[in-house]
């Protein structure tokens, strides 16, 4: 082809990346891999084939992990953990730096092996995945060095079981292994069945770096191996994958005391306003959806375009789609690589077949094999299955909006909440929309930007917990000290009598008003000397529903400024102070103790602490390697339920209520079960303060019954339990239904008078972290 023809056609010639070194490494290992356990590779067992999705050629044979293999790996990690943690942050940092340097030295080998095994274009592996994985180890080496300053008073969980997906094999490994090692944990990692090779190469790197035996262990296999790892004797589970599997893991770990983080599916909105740079927005979609074959959980696969530019934007988009190049992932001139596996290709095909709306398939040539053409499906209704379900392929679904408020409504009309992209040349519009989107990450005029310092994770059914930044370190640590077992406080004599018809004085507090319980019954409550104190209402399912609806309606509290929320909490503290002696006497009578004065005084302190923190826990900017800004913003979880402790009826309730309110949450609180009349005292405080109606709702009744109802409630965003009864397992199992956030005590005693009862102890659980990325420059 002559120069003139090249300029006319703008065709690219082939630019293949040589695969020889990667294939030689596989051959050097015998093309059959065992697990990596206790610093060495095991003899291969029963194996399965891993193939190059671009041409179907077998790359290697991978061992199918068994329960015994997992147990052996966990035992090796357990044996190594104490010494690894004792090495100290600076000692661990040196090992992480050594791993990073070897990742850099062999970056081309990793990039080629990733594209061979996964099918993504070499440009993405080379320019995004591998450098970002290196960045994670560098960043977390620094976190290890500064652990005492970064997360004071915290220690490692112990042994971490980690399961990563096939779309970012090495990067997801780095996201999980680097912070775990930095904080003193040891790990057993299971890579995805279809893409295990770069994890095994990483194991070889660990050996070369001189990492102590047993600190990193890698067990390969399918979902059964992953299930065995989740069920094994690990202290923490970290999983990235589908929402369906994440829900099963939540149920499997319920009540076990294992720490858990889940990064799950998404159906991320890609919002294009009429003042956007349309050409840049089109290129952003190429990067988000087609450059990696759409095989990204946070891909902007749901296109929302403002009506005024929709026709023009779609014309630009389809013209660009027609020019995309599909083919060998190792060709540097290729835009769209192969689908990772024929099974995934079949899934994509079945989802698109019979689609509603207008289907446009790119006119670009599609090679034979595991490839799928770039596809746009427009004119869909918001309720269409394709607008709601994750496709995980090079398929974009689209609809239009008229106003910014409608864009937000459409964007949030999903059960997911992983990521979002906002495109507008008006920064006021972009930064007005970003906080309103239910998403853990929002990119402004960009997409798929990641960094170790900026936390990543989802909301709603996209999972919970964060990876990256200081927030990710919290996920791999726990408070220092050995917890004590909780003691159950029994009601005083006579309190187990049959429920009585409610009298006029016993009320619940719902929507800013005192309300009779729906069932019409109350429990007789006695003091320490057996004298009748009164009657506590017994709330039922309908009362819970009414309380959650009232809390949901009080969204103005979440929208109030932190300064205004602080003022209300200060006022509440003043009103509690004015009744200090009276409430102290009532507490002593209720509980039979002589600690009422201390409890009231500490509760006052808790309110003032929370007020002080209200405007000082909003988030911060993070130093990301780009010309721009990444902001880690703190937002309220939403509607939060809590079962209050028995041992400190007033202080426990206030210790949960105050920080959650300070962060902008609306609450449904269930008062102490043996001392429920404390709710009546708190009701009077709320009525004489400026707490808006519905921001705090108070219920009383049997915790075991109300815990089930609250955990099942789909409109409750989070549930905390510090009840005298250990309801942890029941709550975590039931919360898997909509993957609501939980904070439970696992039967451990908490010192409500000490720091672990303080406002700062609950702020992380009372907030979601949203990373907002704002590139800048003309």
Describe this structure in words.
The protein is of the alpha/beta class. The chain has 3 domains: 21-264 and 471-478, Aldehyde Dehydrogenase, Chain A, domain 1 (3-Layer(aba) Sandwich), CATH 3.40.605; 269-457, Aldehyde Dehydrogenase, Chain A, domain 2, CATH 3.40.309; 500-616 and 636-755, Aldehyde Dehydrogenase, Chain A, domain 1. 40% of the residues lie in helices and 19% in strands. The protein contains 28 helices and 33 strands. The strands form 8 sheets. Strands 14-15-16-13-12-17-18-33-27-26 form a 10-stranded mixed beta sheet, with helices on both faces. It has a 6-stranded mixed beta sheet with strand order 9-8-7-10-11-19, with helices on both faces. Strands 30-29-28-31-32 form a 5-stranded parallel beta sheet, with helices on both faces. β17, α17 (427-433) and β18 form a beta-alpha-beta unit. α12 (278-290) crosses α13 (307-322) and α23 (596-614) runs parallel beside α24 (649-662). It is globular, with a radius of gyration of 28 Å. The mean pLDDT is 91.
Short description:
The chain is of the alpha/beta class and 778 residues long. It has three domains: 21-264 and 471-478, Aldehyde Dehydrogenase, Chain A, domain 1 (3-Layer(aba) Sandwich), CATH 3.40.605.10; 269-457, 3-Layer(aba) Sandwich (Aldehyde Dehydrogenase, Chain A, domain 2); 500-616 and 636-755, Aldehyde Dehydrogenase, Chain A, domain 1 (3-Layer(aba) Sandwich), CATH 3.40.605.10. Helices cover 40% and strands 19% of the residues.
């Amino acid at each position: 082809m002559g120069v003139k023809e090249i300029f006319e056609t703008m065709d690219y010639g082939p630019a293949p990346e040589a695969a020889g070194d990667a294939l030689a490494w596989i051959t050097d290992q015998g093309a059959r891999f065992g697990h990596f356990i206790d610093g060495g590779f095991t003899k291969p067992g029963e194996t399965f084939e891993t193939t190059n999705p671009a041409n179907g050629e077998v790359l290697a044979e991978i061992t199918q992990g068994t329960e015994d293999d997992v147990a052996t790996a966990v035992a090796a990690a357990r044996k190594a953990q104490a010494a690894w943690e004792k090495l100290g942050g600076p000692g661990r940092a040196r090992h992480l730096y050594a791993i990073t340097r070897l990742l850099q030295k062999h970056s081309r080998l990793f990039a080629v092996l990733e594209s061979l095994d996964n099918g993504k274009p070499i440009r993405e592996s080379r320019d995004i995945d591998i450098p970002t994985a290196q960045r994670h180890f560098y960043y977390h080496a620094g976190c290890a060095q500064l652990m005492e300053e970064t997360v004071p008073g915290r220690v490692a969980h112990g042994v971490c079981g980690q399961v990563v997906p096939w779309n970012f094999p090495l990067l997801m490994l780095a996201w999980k292994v680097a912070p775990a090692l930095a904080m003193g944990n040891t790990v057993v990692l299971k890579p995805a069945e279809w893409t295990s090779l770069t994890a095994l190469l990483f194991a070889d790197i660990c050996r070369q770096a001189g990492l102590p035996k047993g600190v990193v262990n890698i067990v390969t296999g399918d979902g059964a191996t992953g299930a065995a790892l989740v069920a094994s004797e690990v202290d923490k589970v970290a999983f990235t994958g589908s929402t369906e599997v994440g829900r099963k893991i939540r149920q499997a770990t319920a009540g076990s005391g294992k720490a858990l983080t889940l990064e799950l599916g998404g159906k991320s909105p890609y919002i294009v306003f009429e003042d956007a740079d349309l050409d840049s927005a089109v290129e952003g979609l190429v990067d988000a959806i087609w450059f990696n074959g759409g095989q990204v959980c946070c891909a902007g696969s749901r296109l929302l375009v403002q009506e005024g530019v929709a026709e023009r934007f779609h014309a630009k988009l389809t013209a660009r789609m027609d020019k995309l190049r599909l083919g060998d992932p190792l060709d540097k001139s290729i835009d769209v690589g192969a689908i990772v596996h024929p099974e995934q290709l079949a899934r994509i095909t079945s989802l698109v077949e019979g689609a509603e709306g207008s289907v446009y398939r790119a006119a670009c040539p599609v090679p034979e094999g595991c490839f799928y053409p770039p596809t746009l499906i427009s004119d869909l209704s918001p309720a269409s299955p394709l607008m709601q379900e994750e496709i995980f392929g090079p398929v974009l679904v689209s609809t239009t909006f008229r106003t910014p408020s409608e864009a937000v409504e459409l964007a949030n009309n999903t059960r997911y909440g992983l990521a979002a992209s906002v495109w507008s040349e008006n920064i006021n519009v972009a930064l007005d929309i970003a906080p309103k989107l239910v998403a853990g990450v929002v990119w402004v005029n960009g997409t798929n930007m990641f960094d170790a310092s900026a936390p990543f994770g989802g909301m709603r059914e996209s999972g919970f917990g964060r990876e990256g930044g200081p927030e990710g370190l919290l996920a791999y640590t726990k408070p220092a000290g050995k917890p004590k077992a909780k003691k159950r406080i029994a009601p005083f004599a006579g309190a187990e009598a049959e429920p009585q018809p409610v009298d006029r004085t016993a009320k619940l507090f719902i929507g800013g008003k005192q309300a009779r319980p729906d069932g019409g019954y109350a429990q007789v409550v006695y003091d320490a000397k057996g004298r009748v104190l009164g009657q506590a209402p017994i709330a039922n399912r309908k009362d819970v529903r009414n309380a959650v609806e009232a809390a949901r309606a009080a969204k103005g509290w979440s929208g109030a400024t932190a300064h205004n929320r602080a003022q209300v909490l200060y006022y509440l503290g003043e009103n509690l102070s004015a009744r200090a002696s009276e409430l102290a006497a009532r507490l002593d009578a209720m509980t039979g103790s002589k600690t009422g004065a201390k409890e009231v005084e500490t509760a006052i302190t808790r309110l003032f602490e929370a007020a002080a923190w209200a405007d000082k826990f909003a988030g911060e900017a993070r130093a990301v390697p780009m010309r721009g800004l990444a902001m880690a913003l703190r937002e309220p979880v939403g509607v939060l339920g809590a079962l209050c402790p028995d041992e400190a009826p007033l202080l426990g309730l206030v210790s949960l209520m105050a920080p959650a309110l300070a962060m902008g949450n609306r609450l449904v609180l269930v008062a102490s079960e043996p001392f429920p009349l404390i709710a009546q005292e708190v009701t009077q405080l709320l009525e004489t303060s400026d707490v808006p109606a519905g921001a705090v709702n108070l219920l009383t009744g049997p915790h075991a019954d109300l815990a089930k109802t609250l955990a099942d409630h789909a409109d409750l965003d989070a549930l905390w339990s510090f009840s005298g009864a250990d309801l942890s397992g029941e709550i975590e199992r039931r919360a898997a239904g909509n993957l609501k956030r939980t904070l439970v005590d696992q039967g451990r005693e908490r010192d409500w008078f000490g720091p672990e009862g303080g406002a700062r102890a609950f702020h992380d659980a009372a907030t979601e972290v949203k990373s907002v990325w704002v590139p800048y420059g003309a």
